[in-house]
Design brief:
Blueprint (H helix, E strand, L loop, with lengths): L1 H31 L8 H32 L19 E6 L5 E5 L2 E5 L4 E4 L14 E6 L4 E6 L2 E6 L5 E4 L9 E6 L5 E5 L2 E6 L4 E5 L13 E6 L5 E5 L4 E5 L4 E5 L4
Antiparallel strand pairs: 1-2, 2-3, 3-4, 5-6, 6-7, 7-8, 9-10, 10-11, 11-12, 13-14, 14-15, 15-16
Length: 262
């Protein structure tokens, strides 16, 4: 009788244990199984809008990449301007673009202005005092007052672009100056390179200063000046025909000579 009761108790406990394990297993499965989430209509519309925005961004980026590639590989096109278009000669010595966008050509037979459609020619006229001193144009530069300075084989000229009048500038002591280069600085100062050397001109006072050994502590030489350049520091670089390179230090107001390098 005792054995039967013991057996029944063990059997009862076993059934309870099995029921406990079965219930635990169901809970584990339910926990591991993801529940279906209900999606509202608003959420669907938001997802569609986000997808559309992403497509638009991708299209814009693709278009930008295509434009960049096209810019890199755009072929250059050239147009020939010659005497048939109005130039006095096919020999052009200098090309200069002013602040108004016009292109100026320095030729041996006059000064030419190109506006994108046609060419206007300025030449020396014997009976007109408001014309060029010489037709052989060597250099061009524009000042801050929109005046065009013109260096010729025989004299310095300045063109008033509003009126078209040309004024001859006399350089004292030099009867037939050959003006090889003109520099208008950021301070609206005018430097001139002549066969006789370096000159500084003040339009306000209409005075010239001849820069040579005497006023440069013996640095400058009496050599033709062929090129002038102002750098980002405001210093002036002076290239000569046979005496090398010089620099004007605008802060110290002194000249520096650079030796030749073989």
């Amino acid at each position: 009788m005792k054995l039967s009761l013991r057996y029944i108790s063990i059997k009862k406990y076993s059934a309870v244990l099995l029921l406990f394990l079965w219930m635990k297993g169901i809970n584990t499965i339910e926990a591991a199984t993801p529940k279906e989430q209900t999606t509202t209509r608003e959420q669907v519309e938001q997802r569609e809008q986000a997808a559309q925005k992403e497509q638009i961004v991708q299209k814009e980026e693709a278009a930008q990449r295509e434009q960049t590639v096209q810019k890199k590989y755009v072929p250059l096109t050239f147009r020939l301007l010659s005497t048939s278009d109005g130039l006095p000669t096919n020999e052009v010595q200098k090309v200069y673009q002013d602040k108004d966008g016009f292109i100026w050509f320095a030729t041996r037979y006059g000064l030419c202005k190109y506006d994108g459609y046609g060419i206007s020619v300025y030449t020396r006229q014997l009976n007109n005092p408001n014309s060029l001193s010489n037709n052989n144009i060597l250099c061009l530069a524009e000042d801050h007052d929109h005046r065009l300075w013109i260096g010729t084989q025989d004299g310095l000229n300045v063109l008033n672009k509003k009126t078209g009048d040309i004024k001859k500038i006399t350089i004292p002591g030099i009867p037939n100056p050959v003006v090889s280069c003109i520099l208008v600085t950021s301070k609206n100062e005018i430097w001139l390179g002549l066969e006789e050397g370096l000159f500084f001109y003040s339009p306000k006072t209409n005075e010239f200063l001849y820069l040579n050994r005497n006023n440069s502590n013996g640095v400058l030489s009496d050599s033709p000046v062929k090129s002038l350049l102002e750098d980002s520091y405001g210093d002036i670089w002076i290239g000569t025909w046979s005496k090398g390179l010089f620099r004007y230090d605008s802060k110290k107001q002194t000249f520096v000579a650079y030796p030749q390098m073989n």
